[in-house]
Amino acid sequence: MVEVQHKFTITALVEEPGCVLFTLRNHLWVPQNANPLRPLLSGSTAASNGNPRLPDSLHYIDPSGRPNAYQRAIVEVGEVLLLYDSDKRFPTWGFGARPIDGPVSHCFNLNGSSHYCEVEGIQGIMMAYTSALLNVSLAGPTLFGPVISTAALIASQSVANGGRKYFVLLIITDGVVTDLQETKDAIVKASDLPLSILIVGVGGADFKEMEVLDADKGERLESSYGRVASRDIVQFIPFREVQSGLSVVQAFLAELPAQFLTYVRSRNIQPNL
Predict the structure, then answer these.
(1) Among 33, 75, 96, 184, which one is most buried in terms of CB atoms within 10 A?
(2) Do 21 and 31 touch, CB atoms closer than 8 A?
């Protein structure tokens, strides 16, 4: 085995068949030939963020080069996730926008392609994000359900193909969501899959709805049809807390290890030693 040290306790998530990572205090234990996860990223471009051409918008691109709230979150969080990605390519989507000459979309490829959703590295995400702001019109409502369902489909296809992959969907949002019950339904449905959802809240909005999705109080989410989530798969972090001194690594990996281990233990997945 190969030992990779880090300042904080970390569990990375892998996509190589038969490989599982274990956490041991401040060390990350990686089975040989492990291939770290390729995270899934999604960011809200919804109208609730304000006109991106005005300085008071969370999406405002400052000519001086000072990053806006979304750009800061992309860099801070992306640099953590990048450590566990083998090819440094990220499937990346946007939601809550109207592409040129098209209807409002709640899950579109952020790079503008109709055929593929991946971008290369953090710089690729930043370029796709900036380009999208120039080529789409922000629009409501803000729906999480379609993005979560897209990530869940990828995870379910992996399981169906016999893969032992675990996926993380990162959602960056201003906290406004208009399909709360549909989002709950999608999360409950996805709770049986190898998937965790990290939600970053940017700006100063009321994040009560995001906190509802993060079942930290011990009560699992229940769908509209009475099904209870098999496990907690959501971690919500207000980005302002990260900026006020809380380590990004600490914040984002506070729950991921338990979520990951709960899944592999429920499936009796054994590591390659």
Answers:
(1) 96
(2) yes
Count Cβ atoms within 10 A of the Cβ of residue 3 and give its class: 0-12 exposed, 13-18 middle, 19 or more buried: exposed
Quick: pLDDT tens for 78-137: 887 787 777 888 899 998 888 777 888 889 999 989 899 999 999 999 999 999 888 888
List the beta bridge partners of residue 92. 41
Tokens of 199: 């939600």
Overall pTM surpassing 0.90 (yes/no) = no
Q: How many other C-beta atoms can be found within 10 angstroms of the C-beta atom of residue 108?
A: 25
Maximum pairwise Cα distance, the chain = 55
User: Which sign, positive or negative, has the C-alpha torsion 93, 230, 85, 60?
Assistant: positive
String of DSSP letters for 202-259 = -SS---HHHHHHS-TTSPPPB-TTSPBPSS--EEEEEHHHHHTT--HHHHHTSSHHHH
The type of residue at 34 is A
126 is written with which tokens? 């930043």
Structural domains in the chain, CATH included, are 10-17+47-267 (3.40.50)
DSSP structure string for 27-64: EEEE-TT--B---EEEEE--GGG--TTSTTSTT---TT
What φ, ψ does residue 249 adopt, rounded to 5°? -60, -45
Give the CA radius of gyration of the chain.
18
**Do 155 and 190 meet the contact criterion of CB atoms below 8 Å apart?**
yes
